[in-house]
Amino acid sequence: MKNWKFKMASTILGSTLLLAACGSTDEGGETEENGSSTASEVEGSVIGDGSSTVAPIMEGIVEEYAGAQPGVQVTVGVSGTGGGFEKFIEGETDFSNASRPIKEEEAAALEEAGIDYTEILLAYDGLSVVVSQENDFVEDLTVEDLKKLWVEDGTTKMWSDINPEWPEEEVVFYAPGTASGTYDYFNEVILEDEDIVSSATLSEDDNTLVQGIQSDPNAIGFFGYAYFVANKDTLKVVTIDGIEPNDETIESGEYSPLSRPLFTYAKNSSMSDNEAAYDFMQYTIENAGEMAQAVGYVALPEEEYENGLADLEALK
After folding, report:
1. Which of 126, 142, 162, 218 would suit a FRET pair with 286, their CA atoms being 20 to 30 Å apart?
2. What are the residue boundaries of the PBP domain, all occurrences included (predicted)?
3. pTM of the model
4. Closest CA to 260 of 268, 250, 270, 247
């Protein structure tokens, strides 16, 4: 897409993205220049919410979609994966972005509410562990090191506890909030459901985490790969068991256990009854791979997007 290599600043996205379409679109049913099959003009509104990790992808797509369909207003909140599912269950949104698969209890709540949904894959992410560029001693950590650092055990965590050659300085922790799918994922694969260190600063806003880590050489945190890419001049990514997150290691799964898929969940009734919601979701699937690459994530194999389009088509 012609404008997708937009600048990713350290403040990638605020608490709510509201972009009303303000461009122009081709008439007469012609294919758009970006390759989307969105052709005729559509009017209406679409509402989504959810993951801050997925937000950079969705921000770019909404911006481009605004030029393709000026009659559609798309509003996307960023209240975290869990917060997004809460609104989805309440029937407040047409789609819900997630950085983890839906939980059994969330699926059960949707069933009880009479809301059918379709899971759509968008991209791959490598949950990135980062420190400040001013930190000149941490280069690599093992999964065991991460657990020792991040699990609450009643002690004051010092860098020298991990490596006696490192400074005897207290570790400062930054982590996504408990409503975040990133928190859930880290909890599952690193903490193994034990309590996170009590001194950690938790926030649903990844930019708050970025800013805190940037300014403190003793800080450590984690979030989606795109937020590291957007701030790599002031942050340093830590390799995990010698593996650095990048396009190849994330897609192959070599960056284990911190590689993961990113999703959006579409409400079936919105896709069948709301032309604007269907059109926006079609546009999203068709362009998610290119946007994912543009903002710092990893595109899926093309067949996965074709599967997503087929699933969407079945809801029409």
Report:
1. 126
2. 37-285
3. 0.84
4. 250
